[in-house]
Amino acid sequence: MITAQQQVKDLLDFIDNSPSPYHAVKNIEEKLSAFDFKRLNETEKWDLKPGSRYFIVRDDSSIIFFVLGKKPLSETGYRILGAHTDSPGLKIKPNAVNNADGLLRLGVEVYGGPILATFTDRDLSLAGRISYKAASGDIASRLVRFDQALLRLPNLAIHMNRKVNEDGLKLHKQTELPLILAVAVEQQLSEKYLHNLLVKASDIDAHDILSWELSVYDTQKGVFWGDNKQFYADSQLDNLASCHAGMQALLDENTLNSDNTLVCAFFDHEEIGSESTKGASGCFLPDVLQRIGFAMDVDKEDYQRALARSFMISADMAHAYQPNFPSAYEPEHKVTVNRGPVIKVNANHRYSSESLSEAMFISWCEASEVPYQKYSHRADIPCGSTIGPMTSAKLGIRTVDVGNPMWAMHSIRESAGVEDHCYMIKVLNTFFSVE
Ligand code: CO
């Protein structure tokens, strides 16, 4: 029996090895291969066998993996868990290096909605993918990661920012976010500087590197904290914690031999609205579900019957109550860390939950002896959203929005409760395995 601490240790290792969505997907692929999942290519014909396991990667940072059930799709539908692989943060601009005032700095663009002030005074570095001309003449991609603290955004001393504790730290997105990289040496060609670093880190010849996508990440590793180590902290808990919980729930011998068709779909680009070839609002999931149907000779009507029988859990982190800020929360919906997964409800359908899908999730919590909580955002503060509403609208699949409670969502250092991670794995395991 794996303890809650061991599950969370595995999660922290997964996050620390996944400094970008590309790395997260690579790590998931490796884990799946150890469980006999076969890679399918979207350009090839799919030959699928009931009871077998498969995965598809789109553009290196979104992944769908599934276990094909032994029963016909029209009788079981798909059981889907959706989550996202990306987190808000900073991305490096193409012509990134700026040489001024004796320093080289890297220009960044803000990706999604991070709490920018949390990026100051951290041991930052870079990770992502490089696209290059391979020896065969084809264009290929390779992941790259700098392990050392390479970059920093030093805060302004309080002596120059006397009101920082009253007004908060505000950073101008264009002028105050460039990250310090090195002392400039005279006659250095600044535009070649980052290129040279990439050559060294990737082992690709300088003239073969054509383009790249790099995100800023925090090199500090995850920790357990609190007197009894009941909490944990790391970057990217939103939403790699949900990806990890889904993966652990599915990769269980009982679940893997299910009669039902079980699907995990983890998408990039959620933090920027999901509108892309690999985002949750794109065609990736509909394409894959349909192709599973084609490969199983399911006709159009039976495919629609399968969708009508399907269920999706959209798992994304939720806001835990922080008692220092009582006025930020809806007083009757204070969600507590370590008291179980949260069902998210919103009248304007920013979350996809409705009473029937909520009730089904509650029944799986009860069957797994897992406590649950309900969350509603304050009516006077705009509510966030998830991949739930867009995927359920596209596919017509009944969906519930859930997530584990966490503090400091979109900070570079988020934290959550150890017990909750185990609870989530348990209830997702029940979702995948109940008849
Ligand atoms: Co999220």
How many strand elements?
20
Q: What is the domain tally?
A: 2
Name the CATH superfamily assignment of the largest domain: Zn peptidases
Determine Rg (CA atoms, Å). 23 Å
Ligand names:
cobalt (II) ion
Total helices: the number is: 12
- Strand arrangement within the widest β-sheet reads 1-2-3-13-4-14-18-16-17
Q: Per CATH, what is the topology of the largest domain? A: Aminopeptidase
Tell me the CATH architecture of the largest domain: 3-Layer(aba) Sandwich
Overall morphology: globular
Strand percentage = 25-35%
Structural class: alpha/beta
Q: Name the CATH class of the largest domain.
A: Alpha Beta
- Uncertain runs: none
The average pLDDT is 96
Helical residue percent? Answer: 25-40%
In whole angstroms, how far apart are the ends? 23 Å
Reported for the largest beta sheet, the result is:
9 strands, mixed
